[in-house]
Amino acid sequence: MEKKTHVACANIIAIGLVKPNNISSLLITCGFASLGGLLPDVDLKDSTTDRLFDRLMASLITVIAMNFFLKYFLDIDIYEKIKELNIIFNYLISVFIFIIMGYLGSKFSHRSFTHSILGCFVYTLILSYGFNNNILIPFLCGYISHIILDLLNKKGVALFYPSKYRFCLNLCESNGKTNKLLFIIFSFINILLLILISTEIIWQIKKIVYNL
Ligand SMILES: [Zn+2]
User: Fold this and answer.
1) I need a surface site. Which of 42, 61, 72, 160 has the fewest CB within 10 A?
2) What is the pTM of this model?
3) pLDDT at residue 37 above 70?
4) Mean of the pLDDT values across residues 71-83?
């Protein structure tokens, strides 16, 4: 499936499960559902996710090099200073490891580790170190929906990696007519959900304003 189909499907499931009741919750839900929906294709050479993690890894190496430079030449240890901030320390460690594992995921063959139950477990576990269910649930919705959609394709998915056996339902091609039809259906459902949610959010804002 194309990335837009994965994102559209991920958002439907995440919005349906989380039922966000304000704008920030809606943005977080859609953002992390999209991340989960796109991450497995980091193993697809030159995909959007592959390029994103290349850049993130380059940024991470720059930050580590800067910390090394500041520590040994100016005696300033940013790592120790961040460690003192307990609240964001776990969050940063989680993000750093996630970037490294995302980058390493791009080195596997297409539809192997990152499209497996093991891959889904590893990435969710890393995120769980610094984030709560508000982020983990949409992320998982995106990740699992990506694997299920890819199972419909002719090219198999190594669901139980490291086992090399590939599962597929052989129903469609990744960029064929079924993909286009699914994208239209998912987009339509997304629009309906967004209308329903915005009506609810507007109603709640009105309630707060009139109670003031
Ligand atoms: Zn995929």
Assistant:
1) 72
2) 0.86
3) yes
4) 73
Distance 146 CA to ligand 1 centre (A): 6
Our count of domains for the chain comes to: 1
Q: How far apart are the C-alpha atoms of 142 and 29, rounded to whole Å?
A: 10
Q: Which CA distances in Å does 205 have to 26, 57, 78, 208? A: 15, 41, 42, 5
| Spatial contact of 6 and 149, defined as CB atoms under 8 Å apart | yes
Give the distance (Å) from ligand 1 centre to CA of residue 23: 29
- Full domain range(s) for residue 200: 3-211
Query: What is the C-alpha separation between 115 and 120, in angstroms, rounded?
Result: 7
Q: What is the C-alpha to C-alpha distance for residues 2 and 17, in angstroms, rounded to an integer?
A: 23
Q: 147 C-alpha vs ligand 1 centroid, how far in Å?
A: 6
* DSSP assignment letter at 114: G
In this model, does residue 87 exceed pLDDT 70?
no
CA of 115 to the centre of ligand 1 (A): 6
CA of 14 to the centre of ligand 1 (A): 18
> Residue 15 to residues 22, 35, 131, 134: CA-CA distances in angstroms?
12, 14, 18, 11
SS3 content of the chain, % helix, strand, coil (to 5): 75, 0, 25
Dist. CA 112 → ligand 1 center (Å):
9
